[in-house]
Amino acid sequence: MPDNIIAPAGGIAFATDEVGGLHFPYAKLAFGADNSAIAVADSDGSRLPVTVQTLATTTRAYLYAGGQRLATAGAVQVRSTAVTGSEVLLHASVRGFFRVGDSSVTASIGPGSIPLAAEEKFHLRLTSGQFISFIRDGASDGSLTIMPVA
Predict the structure, then answer these.
(1) Helix (H) or strand (E) holding 30
(2) Is 61 helix (H, G, I), strand (E, B) or coil?
(3) What is the DSSP-derived secondary structure letter of residue 62?
(4) How far apart, in whole angstroms, are the C-alpha atoms of residue 73 and residue 82?
(5) According to DSSP H, which parts of 1-150 are helical?
(6) What are the distances in angstroms from CA 49 to CA 36, 37, 43, 45, 145?
(7) What is the pTM of this model?
(8) Which residues of 63-101 are buried (b: 16+ CB within 10 A; e: fewer)?
(9) What is the DSSP letter of 39?
(10) Spatial contact of 148 and 85, defined as CB atoms under 8 Å apart
(11) Which H helix or E strand runs over 131?
């Protein structure tokens, strides 16, 4: 059986790979607006570009003196002071949402903010000097602890 097939409706050929009597379509990955395509490939045109980010493989050390604890007070968001460091550990005592940004950043419940479950611990990379805003999602007050990584 040949690798390629022709669509019966319009006579257009499609690239496939025949494996065990079945045709698997070849697809070219691309993105872009309607009626346009920007191919996703390296200079050889054969592989997806991959940026490898090194993750910590050892125990992290924390800067306890630089830590912050944001206590919620009702249904309003609370904001940290400027965070010094490029990575933090976030620990929420209650379910809530957080957002990172400049000194006016505001978290909200829903789209645009990142959810945290109660007692969840989450490592986050950010730009030193950014602020973190947090809002609880529920009736009980709680806190968000922000601990910079050394």
Answers:
(1) strand 30-31
(2) coil
(3) B
(4) 20
(5) none
(6) 20, 16, 9, 10, 36
(7) 0.61
(8) eeebebebebeeeebbbbeebebebbbbbbbbbbbbbbe
(9) E
(10) yes
(11) strand 131-136
The Cβ-side half-sphere exposure at 46, using a 13 Å CA radius, reads 1
> Which residues are registered as beta bridge partners of 32?
none
Give pLDDT, residue 22: 82
pLDDT digits (tens, 9 = 90+) for 98-150: 999 999 999 999 889 999 999 999 999 999 999 999 999 989 999 999 999 98
Q: Which among 11, 12, 19, 28 has a CA at the least distance from the CA of 3?
A: 19
- 3-class secondary-structure state, position 66: helix
Residues 80, 89: Cα–Cα separation, whole Å: 14
* Mean pLDDT for all residues in the chain: 84
The tokens describing 120, both together, are 């969840």
Q: Which two tokens stand for residue 97?
A: 């949402």
Residue 149 CB coordination number (10 Å): 17
**CB-based contact 124:61 (threshold 8 Å):** no
3: left (phi over 0), alpha (psi -120 to 50) or beta: alpha
